[in-house]
Specification:
Blueprint lengths: L2 H20 L3 E7 L3 E4 L3 E9 L7 E7 L5 E8 L10 E4 L2 E3 L4 E9 L9 E10 L3 E13 L7 E5 L1 E6 L2 E10 L10 E4 L2 E4 L5 E8 L1 E8 L6 E7 L3 E7 L6
Parallel strand pairs: 1-11, 2-12, 13-19
Antiparallel strand pairs: 1-3, 3-9, 4-8, 4-10, 5-9, 6-8, 7-8, 10-12, 13-16, 14-15, 14-17, 17-18
Length: about 250
Amino acid sequence: MDARKVVIFAGILLFLIFLNFFLPQAADVSISPSNINVIQGQNIDLNVSIDPSGIPIAGVQMDILYNRSLVKINTLNEGNLFTQNGADSYFNSGIVNNSIGTAVNIYSLIIGPNSISTPGTFIVINITAMGIGTSQINLSNVKISDLDGNLIHLNVYNTSINITQTKSNITFIITDIFTGRLIQGATVTMDGIVTRSNINGEAIFYSVITGSHNYSVNAKNYIISIGTVTITGDLRQNIKLTPKSKK
């Protein structure tokens, strides 16, 4: 490397060091867990944490945006950010509107001439995963202030939630309504899938998605049984068949 290149390289390096040294400190605002997988119908807590990076802060405000068809916010509770040292705080949980997917006017501040400069949890969001798909959980209009009301620089890290369907096994147990005898060879149809009951009178369907499913059960010399079953987890469903009357 010639002398000219060495000088240029050294100049760039010194500039980067100078720039990094004089850049204003910034607080980190993040949602955890980050990029998580859940199942439909599951309730989970999301923590919005703030690391002031040693900067004394006294107030925070923010909004939350999310996919209304996939996520529902149940509660917003204050964390320990502003009460770490026994200080008092004023907390406003904001206005949640699940019909449009927003929670707005969320804020908290320390009461009195106090401030904090250590990491803590600002809010805890309890949500229900409603649909199937991926929803971003985005923090918007985030502002952090010091004791004098001056806004500080910040970095915001959002998260996403991947929601999948629950798959369960359902076992139909086929018996005679009068004798309780287990019926082998009964034909059970559900979601277009047909299976037969075994020697124990069991007809098993595997990896059935959550929700309502129509079924029919047919056995020789018995009246067909038709019904609907709702799946929320593994299930054993008793089916009692009525014999056809003999002429």
